[in-house]
Write a structure and sequence with these properties.
There is one protein chain. With 370 residues, the protein is of the alpha+beta class. Helix content is 20%, strand content 28%. It is built from eight helices and 22 strands. The chain has helices at 65-68, 98-106, 157-169, 210-216, 223-234, 282-292, 314-325, 362-367; strands at 6-16, 23-28, 31-36, 45-49, 53-55, 69-70, 75-77, 80-83, 86-89, 91-94, 128-129, 142-143, 176-181, 185-191, 196-199, 204-205, 237-245, 260-269, 278-279, 295-296, 345-350, 356-360. The strands form six sheets. Strands 14, 15, 17, 18, 19 and 20 form a six-stranded mixed beta sheet that branches. Helix 3 (157-169) crosses helix 7 (314-325).
Amino acid sequence: MSRKLASIQTIKAIKPIEGADRIETVQVLNWDCVAKKGEYTVGDKVIYFEIDSLLPDIPAFEFLRGSSWSQKLNKYKISTHKFKNQISQGLVIPYDQLKDLMIQINGEISFTLDYPEGEDLTELLKIEKYEPPVSNGALGEIIHHEWYIPKTDEERIQVCAEEVLPIYMSSEQNDWYSSVKLDGTSCTVGLFDDAFLIGGRNQFYKDENMYTSTVNKYFTNGAKEKFETYKAINGVYVAFQGELCGPGIQSNKLGLKEKEWFVFNAFVSKTGKNGSYTKCDLLYMLKLCEEFGLKHVPLIDFEDKFDFKTTTNIDETVENLLKYADQIKYRKYFNEASPNQIAEGVVFRTEEMTHSFKVISNKFLLKGGE
């Protein structure tokens, strides 16, 4: 699912900030954003830009130049900030400024002035998603091939709380599982009806690079032969998604000696055709990892799992989840990680893989976990 980087939302609540005379916190979905005091009232319709949004260089966003301008990207990058000890995540703009935004971005008005709450404006306002750069050698020639399985982009809890939390809050501990979110780069590998492909989040690659060399090291005769042999014996096409971590990638926060690949999704198909792959449940994924000799992302032990039963209030549960994520450290799962290195976050999934979300640590976002 593509993220709604820009959307129509309403102000859910307004809260004061201790020691602040000119600013206050406005709540959009389950995000807290710092705004000028008195600028909004509860129920106001607004344009909300999520963190990781890249905004175009237009006069309407000039006020962001001091805090969010990226000379390298030539765009405004919306990130997590802290004001007077209050975390602010995202940008809120009054809805009546949408007309001006459209004129500055597209040179014309091609929209209705009555968008409903939740309307996705990402494409309309030409908002792009920031992708952390991965610089670890040349990647080589790109293979242009259709993406047969969904790309990875778990929704953050602040976006989907009202939808997913009632399911978890009414379930038992063994109805869902959680895993540690690793700070690396996405790597997809799969056998399809017309090709065996290895790549990153958005592209498959032909030449040897960090993706292909890392994946192939797990197989004596190379990954392609293993996947084809498995299909010949079992009649199943298999594809994996995982996180590539290690030296040269996101400062190697896990402290790994060499690059490693950790699976978090597995897909199977009888035909290998586009749209035919189904996501495996946890036990099937673990079984496939064992059969292929692959590592998987760390699973959180039962005794350390989050307790969804402490409150029936969704907003309080979101707050508790964020505090929970701030306590997870990589050192518990990776011996060479810094003792102070906070994990990027936690991913929650129901056993049947029908509902999932991620909780990103605010401490990680503000300080890189240290």
